[in-house]
Amino acid sequence: MFGDLMGMMGKLKETQKKVEETKKRLDTVLIDEASNDGKLKITLTANRAIKNIEIDNELLEDKEQLEDYLVLTLNKAIARATQVNETEIAAVAKDGMPNIPGMDMFK
């Protein structure tokens, strides 16, 4: 019994380490998003850190329009980054989970 428990604990620690490594790697995965007309371009990491924003000069003339573009485009970029992040983390967590009866939440 204790051998199984120790094996499961070891596998959980290994999985935790892999999850942390995956989180670090996601800092290097870049997500590019642009407004529909290409006047605003945003790059962020899969961990949702903004790396770059490019704004067309035309948008600088209208503060309200620029704010709308920022909200819409940032939300799209964050949603894409979140999807990549959650998919990657879930894959690592699922792969590393020991087979514990009743604990199939990652399957």
How would you describe what is shown here?
This protein has 107 residues and is of the alpha+beta class. It has a single domain (21-96), classed as Nucleoid-associated protein YbaB-like domain (Ybab, Chain: A, 2-Layer Sandwich). Helix content is 55%, strand content 16%. The two termini are 25 Å apart.
Summarize the topology.
Layout: H1 2-26, E1 30-34, E2 40-45, E3 50-55, H2 63-96
Antiparallel strand pairs: 1-2, 2-3
Helix pairs in contact: 1-2
Stated plainly, the CATH topology is called Ybab, Chain: A
Mean pLDDT: 86
Largest sheet: 3 strands, antiparallel
CATH superfamily heading: Nucleoid-associated protein YbaB-like domain
Number of strands: 3
Helix content: 55-70%
- Briefly note the structural class of the backbone: alpha+beta
Enumerate how many helices there are, as a single number.
Answer: 2
Rg (C-alpha, Å): 20 Å
Order of helices and strands: HEEEH
Distance between the termini: 25 Å
Based on the model shown, name its key terms.
single chain, 107 residues, alpha+beta, Ybab, Chain: A, 3 strands, rod-shaped
